Amino acid sequence: MAAEGMIAVTATVLAGSVALLGFGLDSVIEGLASVIIVWRFSGTRTLSETAEARAQKAVAVTFFLLAPYIAYDAISTLASGEKPSTSWLGIGLSVASLIVMPLLGQAKRRLGKVLDSGATSGEGTQNLLCAYLAAAVLVGLLANTLFGLWWLDPVVGLLVAALAVREGMEAWRGEECGC
């Protein structure tokens, strides 16, 4: 996830893509959620219901961290008409993430059920969100590259922000992702 985030941010700097920025920030947030899960299952917290509840809320907060900045950047980009450049690096990264992240997310969600850990399942949902985001970013990047539909990139960013808020609310309530 760290490599994914660094590549996405590098591609963002090169191309000026709102969707790629959201993708990169999502990778950072996924990493934070992974740290929360490691915290949750270390030391005396292993069997603690209180630690599980705190971890679940903390994972939910990670979803909320992504939305405001991406929404602001997307709206600003739409208002200014700033067009992203073609990003072959971003396209390649999106394809790779679209392949890997669903596998990782489903594995973490299965593990969450085995451990009876909503926090672990929520962290798996983070990975699934990453896969959805990769698909949306790929559509936006290809639409810009092939058809000049520059505005689709920030629109994808807005959709990502909305999805992050929805998933954060579900995680906060302890619900499984409706993915």
TrEMBL record:
Cell compartments where the protein resides: Cytoplasmic vesicle, Secretory vesicle, Synaptic vesicle membrane; Early endosome membrane
Gene3D superfamilies, per database record: Cation efflux protein transmembrane domain
Record key words, sorted: Cytoplasmic vesicle, Endosome, Membrane, Synapse, Transmembrane, Transmembrane helix, Zinc
Domain of life: Bacteria
Domain Cation efflux protein transmembrane: residue ranges: 9-169
Membrane topology of this protein: Multi-pass membrane protein
Residue ranges crossing the lipid bilayer per the database entry: 6-38, 58-75, 87-107, 128-152
Pfam families named among the record's database cross-references: Cation_efflux
Keyword Zinc carried by entry: yes
InterPro entries tied to this protein: Cation_efflux_TM, Cation_efflux_TMD_sf, Tmem163
GO (cellular component) term, any one: membrane
A single MF term (Gene Ontology): monoatomic cation transmembrane transporter activity
Keyword Ribosomal protein: no
PANTHER family: TRANSMEMBRANE PROTEIN 163 (PTHR31937:SF2)
Protein family membership: Belongs to the TMEM163 family.
Name listed for the protein in its UniProt record: Cation efflux protein transmembrane domain-containing protein
Organism: Streptantibioticus cattleyicolor (strain ATCC 35852 / DSM 46488 / JCM 4925 / NBRC 14057 / NRRL 8057)
